[in-house]
Amino acid sequence: MLTDNKIKHLKPKDKPYPTADANGLTLYTLPTGSQSWRLRYRFHGKADTLTLGKYPLISLKDARGLKEVYLSVLAKGIDPKVYQRQQKSSQQNKLTFKAAFDKWLDRHKGGWTERTVKKQVSAFEKHVFPYIGKMYVEDIKTSDMLDLLRRMDDKGISETLKKVKRWSNKVFEDCVVAGMIEYDPTAIIKNTQFSKQVVKNYATVTSEDDIRALLLQLETYKQRGTYQVATALNLAPYLMLRPGEICKLTWENIDFKSRLIRISAGSMKMRREHVIPMSNHVLSVFKEVQDLGLSSKHVFPSPNVSNQPVDPASLRMAIRRLGISGDVFTTHGFRSMASTRLNEMGFNGDWVEVQLAHVDSNTVRGVYNNAIYIEQRRDMMEKWSNYLDKLKFK
To answer: Between 3.40.50.10790, 2.130.10.10, 1.20.950.20, 1.10.443.10, what CATH number should domain 208-393 receive?
Structure first.
């Protein structure tokens, strides 16, 4: 019988030659020095040979294991060569997790912004693919996913963990539907199995005195910064849009006749078209900006980069230049500020959530279209605008 030491001492000759192990398993050494495993057997009285793979990619131990598998198949009356072809064909129809992920994402990526997709793919490349990317989905167990997610939990990246778990769940669900696997290995993994992380909300202000002080500080930026940034910054409290959505507004979005801002699905975080009523104050500011003719495309064109809008980061930097720290207020804080005050002022919570472009089945009863509650929101946004003006000028 062969040993690893004996194999190491086998030298190439002018012609290929076999060295027997046991029960038909043979190692062939070629003139080039490469070596491969073969299994000699008889099927229905006819001698045949099956190639198992190259040494040392297939170790002596693995070769003996394969031999036992094929001899077992032979004992059942199946030709080992036929069985080998069937196995290879079956293997080709399998999908690795990475391949399954790519296939799923290709079908569904239209549901998110390009930025969101890139961010999620990056998370999988860093935290998932190195561990299970090359594994066949049918071989991935719940324990594999739990180990992977706990590794992320140990790093304190709870939000990334939840998103990775959610997307992995969708990939496995697709595989279940396709008949590749019988169950989703993430199905029984609950968030309670991970460390509780403190949820850090965007810093904001909600009292009347603090809101008034903030608005007055924002007004002073008109003397310190560019017109575009100052105007976008001072409109932010009135619009309840995300910073990126404000900065990327184009004149095509502004419907002066209907007094509406219409933002396409591709520009929104939730990938749904959004319609925002314009108050008298907002309408007058947009008309003022349009009269200046700064750009035929962008409402707030960058003063530094041609044919581009101002960078959302410039709004945050402007707030910092005013001496407002990040733990006191952020640009996203305008939205939570408005949400808190409008609910306290007695406005319907559904109207507020739709105005924020939040889609929550519990909040808006699973119904969404871009103009839902439009008349109610017109009235709400006009009153909100008047409320802010009174705070500034009282």
So the answer is: 1.10.443.10
Identity of the residue numbered 211 = I
Residue 276, judged by CB atoms within 10 A of its CB (0-12, 13-18, 19+), counts as buried
The phi, psi pair for 262, rounded to 5°, reads: -115, 115
**Domain 97-193 is in which class?**
mainly alpha
Q: Which token pair is 256?
A: 């002066």
Range list of β-strands (E), the chain: 17-20, 25-29, 35-43, 46-55, 254-255, 260-263, 274-277
pLDDT tens digit string along 201-258?
678 999 999 999 999 999 999 998 999 999 999 999 999 999 999 999 999 999 999 9
Q: How far apart are CA 232 and CA 242, in angstroms?
A: 11
Which letter does DSSP use for residue 369 in this model? -
Query: In Å, what is the CA distance from 88 to each residue of 95, 179, 333?
Result: 13, 19, 57
Q: Is the dihedral angle over the CA atoms 67, 68, 74, 80 positive or is it negative? A: negative
The structure tokens 């002066």 sit at 256
Cis ω for the linkage preceding 56 (within 30 of 0): yes
| Torsion angles phi and psi, residue 38, rounded to 5 | -135, 150
- What is the model's pTM? 0.52
CATH 3.30.160.390 fits 4-92, yes or no: yes
* Angle, helix 333-344 to helix 227-239, in steps of 10 degrees: 30
* Structural contact between residues 286 and 299, judged by C-beta atoms closer than 8 angstroms: yes
Q: What is the DSSP letter of 355?
A: H
Q: Where in the chain is the domain with CATH 3.30.160.390?
A: 4-92
The H-or-E segment that residue 129 falls in is helix 129-132
CA 37 to each of CA 71, 75, 131, 384: distance values in angstroms, whole numbers, following the listed order: 15, 21, 30, 79
Residues 306-322 have pLDDT tens digits of 899 999 999 999 999 99
DSSP per-residue codes, 271-337: SS-EEEEPPHHHHHHHHHHHHHTS-SSBSSB-SSSTT-BPPHHHHHHHHHHTT--TTT--TTHHHHH
Count the helices and strands in the chain (H runs, E runs): 16, 7
For the chain, residues classed under CATH 1.10.443.10 are 208-393
